[in-house]
Structure of PD(D/E)XK endonuclease domain-containing protein:
Amino acid sequence: MLHHTKNKGDIAATKAIADLTLKGYLILTPLVCEHLPFDFVAYKDDKFYKIQAKYAGDNRVVNKTIWVDKNGTHQKKYKVNDFDFYAVYLPDIDKVVYPSINFKGCYITTQIPNSATPFYWWEDFTDFTEAASKRTYKEFGVDLTTRKVNPDSRIHTRKVERPSKEELEKLVWEKPTAQIGRDFGVSDKAVEKWCKAYGLEKPPRGYWVKKAYGKVEGQLTTHNETFSRIEF
């Protein structure tokens, strides 16, 4: 179905507001927003986030705003302080992703490309994201010789349900982040994002090496307790 440009913007904002509301954010919409560089504000855990909603039929995170009046068509590039995060609606998968304004102008991929060129993958932006690494076809089992994808290797494309806070808090002290990621079929970066979203502390650097040699005297049981001394 074809949509008018304004309708696309309304669809993107509506999808984003619904998604963020389900994620526990309070949404604040300005009474007059036509000349503001953002569409609405999301609030959670004593933090405010200025959001610019965009409909990305071509998966591109646009870097400018365009409007039309009696004097013709105008455009203005976004500045770093105009808003905090995009809310980009991807109609081909009916999902909203949240790259920071620093990602303006980039493309977020929803289909595994048959190319060796690194790309940004949509599942890395399902929460407010300030930094993300580009992926490669190798992570998804793509064979560039045959241009086919090994379905057994597409571990990063399936939807993974995040464990509960209590479960994850227990797991991070039982095994390394990389192992938790393999168990859930996600990257270690995804596990780190889960911990950050829950406000969980992880074992300090060198913890697993010292534990392997039996040098750990104790471990954290909850994120509010103090981790006991580790010595060789």
Observations:
- Residues 160-232 form one domain.
- The chain has two domains: 5-155, 160-232.
